Amino acid sequence: MSKKFKYDLIVIGGGAAGFTASKTASGMGKKVALIEKDKLGGECTWSGCIPSKALIKASEVYGNIKECKKYGIKADGNISHENIMNHVRGVVQSVYAGHKPEVFEKAGINVLFGEPKFLDNNTISLNGKKLTAEKFILATGSSPFVPPISGLDKTKYLTNSNLFEISEIPKTLTIIGAGAIGVEMANAFNKLGTIVNVVDMAGFLVNDDKDLTQILQQKLSQEGINFYMGYGVEKVSEEGLEKFVQIKKGKEIKAIKSDQILVAAGRKPNLDGLNLEKVGVQLVKGGVKTDKYLKTTAKNIWACGDIVPPFQFSHISEHEGVKASLNAFLPIKQAVNYDNIIWTIFTQPEISHLGLTETQAREKYGNKVKVSTYKYKDLDRSKTEIETFGMAKFIYLSSGKILGAHIVGKHSCEIINQVQTMKTLGISFYKAKNLIHSYPTYSDIIRQPAKKAFVKKILDNPIVKLLRK
Fold first, then answer.
1. Tens digits of per-residue pLDDT, 220-238?
2. Mean pLDDT confidence for 336-355
3. Same domain as 284, residue 257
4. Same domain for 232 and 260?
5. Count of alpha carbons within 13 Å of 9, Cβ hemisphere only?
6. Boundary residue ending a domain (217, 237, 266)
């Protein structure tokens, strides 16, 4: 380490990206400080992935109890609102146990708390003291974006930041936003008996494949969720314990009454107060401007996680944290490749996304695109568990090169990882026909359509067509 600075690296932000960035640099023998404004763990641990998935699981169990008759079982389920939310908070604490400051200190990383501000490219001010470092990594994460809706500032509302602090499951809930957070929470609370309304001008899960989102939205509607897609929110108001959301579509105006309002209209980067203009870090829509190596426009500052557009997922933040740290110190740089990006919306069942959608693929490759689908109802494992809703869709070229895969159905979040491995390693989709899966499993939803696709390829061969005639 240069004697000129106290640290080789200061990482600002103690969430998923900051964790991996600081641990990677420390593992390379660098002296590292990790600065967090509030609590280590970030949005994912405290108000995102962890509590939401705990609530989703609780709602799934309750839903299974209500539907157990279809398995030949009789049971009575009494729901305790307080116990459910206490369970969710207990799961958060169990995850946080692995993220406590002493865990990082033991690994040689100095953990500091406060709100830093850049004084120059090598100096920050923290709690009235100056700290110096040769290099910096920004990993400050994101927070809920609250749109400028009339009356919202005078109305009590929830975001994912305070949603998991409630003790009562609301009887009625209006959610503004039909993205990942909005749809997951709509599904979970609906399973727990809440009457749920979802409003979104843009539409339902607009970043996922349209064929799959259409059947998922239809299923959730049948389960009782009220969707108002294409409606804009005009204003909100509060009268006593009741809240009102006025929505509009064309000339049609509706008023929705509910106990609670959840704003899930997207995320905004946490960049206020850092004084980034002082050190030459340029901003773009959605966060910080970086090159393909995650270096900002400042010579010694990198960025990763939610503040780097366009993706805001914990698994991508972790990946970027490693890349940013390696690129900050190693002579050979590693570009971040988003070609094999993957995500899951944890509804019941999940909808999972890999690579290009069919629309995106056709825009890029035209009529060279091949599509193969397979339905859950044709899987023997689905039949044994009475989980026959859903389908898988594989998008590829005639060569077998995988462009994308999209699955809505039970365990899709696990199944799609196998397809991602094939895509990342450049393995032809047709080769999945040779896989020998244990029987019966949901993973057969990959092998079966691959077999169909291979047979179709053979039958489409001009020589084979001639011979068949």
1. 999 999 999 999 999 999 9
2. 96
3. no
4. yes
5. 32
6. 266
Verify that 183 and 273 share a domain, yes or no. no
Given this model, what pLDDT does residue 458 score?
A: 84
Phi/psi class of residue 357: alpha, beta or left (left: φ > 0; alpha: ψ in -120 to 50)? beta
Instruction: Give the pLDDT confidence of 237-260 residue by residue, as tens digits.
Output: 999 889 999 999 999 999 999 999
> Please, is 51 exposed, middle or buried when counting C-beta atoms within 10 Å of its C-beta (0-12, 13-18, 19+)?
buried
Contact 443, 411 (CB under 8 A): no
- Residue identified by tokens 């509607």 is 221
Please write the tens of the pLDDT for every residue from 3-22. 689 999 999 999 999 999 99
CA-based nearest residue to 160, from 150, 148, 145: 145
Q: Report the CATH number that the domain containing residue 156 is assigned in CATH.
A: 3.50.50.60
Model pLDDT, residue 464 = 66
Q: What is the pLDDT of residues 375-409, one digit of tens each?
A: 999 999 999 999 999 999 999 999 999 999 999 99
Question: Which pLDDT does position 187 carry in this prediction?
Answer: 98
Contact between 173 and 167 (Cβ < 8 Å) = no
Answer yes or no: do 139 and 274 share one domain: yes
User: How is 345-384 classified by DSSP, letter by letter?
Assistant: E-SSS-EEEEE--HHHHHHHHGGGEEEEEEEGGG-HHHHH
Q: Are residues 130 and 204 in the same domain?
A: no
Spatial separation of the C-alpha atoms in residues 354 and 365, rounded to whole Å: 17
Domain membership of residue 305 as a residue range: 7-143+268-329
Give a yes or no: residue 337 inside a domain.
no
More confident residue, 76 or 119: 119
Encode 442-451: b = buried (16+ Cβ within 10 Å), e = exposed: bbbbbbbbbb
Q: Which residues contact 462 (CB under 8 A, 6 or more apart)?
A: none
Total tally of structural domains belonging to the chain: 3
Distance CA 284, CA 152 (A): 27
**Rounded CA gap, 121 and 132, in Å?**
9
Q: Are residues 353 and 450 in the same domain?
A: yes
Is 342 within a domain?
Answer: no
The model's confidence at residue 2, banded by pLDDT at 50, 70 and 90, is: low
Q: Given the DSSP bridges, would you call strands 129-138 and 267-269 parallel, antiparallel or unpaired? A: unpaired
Query: Residue 241: inside a domain, yes or no?
Result: yes
